[in-house]
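Convert to structure. Protein one:
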Amino acid sequence: LSKFISLIIFSNFLSFYFQDRYYACIRRVIICSLICVVLLIFRLSINGFQSPQFSPSDNLIISCPSTFLRIINYCYIYMFYIWLQLYPIHLCFDYSMGCVTLIESINDPRFLVSIVFIIGAITFITQLIKGYFEKQYRFN
């Protein structure tokens, strides 16, 4: 109750200090923040305020000993999901439990696919940024 009263006092201070249009904006932000806190507490109460327990078979990449291979595996998984969106021939209801095997060495052909995907993604993002700034300065 004291937090609620202090929130009301704070909102009254803001309404006095700012104009009415700023007050409406700040009021919306406060309401959205309170709703987020309530939903977060509700979500945590479902788990009994404990973090979820995952087994190694739920996410095989976590058990990978090398950080480099872990990053490569994550990139391969992202590339695999994008490929499934474009060409959905190998569909499965659950891609956990070892359905997609890990890349365990550099000799795996999927390693090269992951590297090409990383280079392509970096090139695509840099071209987007470069094109944005060229367009911005071209018309000004």
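Protein two, convert as well:
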Amino acid sequence: MDISKRNAMQIVNEISGIIGQHVNMMDADGTIIASTDPERMDTYHEGAARVIGEHLDELIIQSDDEYEGTRKGINLPILLDGEIAGVVGITGERDEVVKYGQIIKKMTEILLIENFDKEQKKIDDRIRTRFIDEWLYGDAISQGQAFIQRGARLGIDITLPRRVLVAEIENLRDYSDSPEGQRIIDRVNKTVRRMVGEEKNGVFAKTASQMICLMPDCEDAKLRFFAQQIQAQVWRQFSIRVIVGADSRDGSLLHQSYLRAHKALRACRASRGSTIRFYDDINLELFMDEIPQTSKAEFIRRIFRGFTPEEIDSWVHLLEVYFEADGSLSDAAAQLFIHKNTLQYKLRKLCEQTGYDPRSLSDSSLFYLAVQFYNENRDELNFV
């Protein structure tokens, strides 16, 4: 097991801070790869070479330069997997450093093993992530049995029928631009990862903004219940809302199921009142992804010509409530906490300002599209 300079430097600094002595770490060739004394970095340490070459339990150096590149102190072998991987040395008077010897040796070995395990976990995670990416976005079927075996080695059975949930923190940008917000995102990801892992054959993946849950095949009701559990757990722990898109249960390839769940998520994002959407329940949103953002922004500008961004936001909210009430003035006014006549006046005013009447069947469809485009991704739409 090789010792990296980065890990070695971290460990010698940590140990030196505890015992108040200079600490060095040498590799299997006797070269100092980490030291709290910068002048000794990358120099040869003959004492370490002796410890390694002669398999010594320790080597006490009585005076500076007793061996090439040494100073008085104690040097002990670092044993990893039963082999000497390097040497740790403590500089100082014999009586001062001997008492720390075995403790520092053991501490160094433990810290190196912990760091190695962390590095190995990162490597394993990258391997798993690459595999899942190929599975989700690539042509896994064409790889046949070889891909199935790769999955089996990672503990993933890709032959099982699956459902796909795609979850996202609502108003993600409120959290992604600060260190504290990023820590919250990481904790939410860990919570959802744990919940998916507790489901037999559940597989978790993530992108920069989304949490992808690959679940064993099940009825919509069970999938919805799991999505609700995710939402409840995240809200309970972090007071954060999570929106979820789910695929359709039709035996599609995983990549197609993911795309459908993603479309359902975008539909959920565009509808302020909905937090879980299934692909089979969306209609207009089926082609929303095909329309460029620039075209959506231009459409909104044409409908709300001359309006400020704040005015557009206010009108979108009013129209959304109006549409959710199926055009009922009484129901919409109640939800907006205004009188029915006040709402009637506002709708007439909107008609005068835009030239389109939200109360007419033909014009209401234009406003409905504008509301959908606006809510879908308001942060990316430019109204300047």
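The radius of gyration is 31 Å. The chain has a mean pLDDT of 91.
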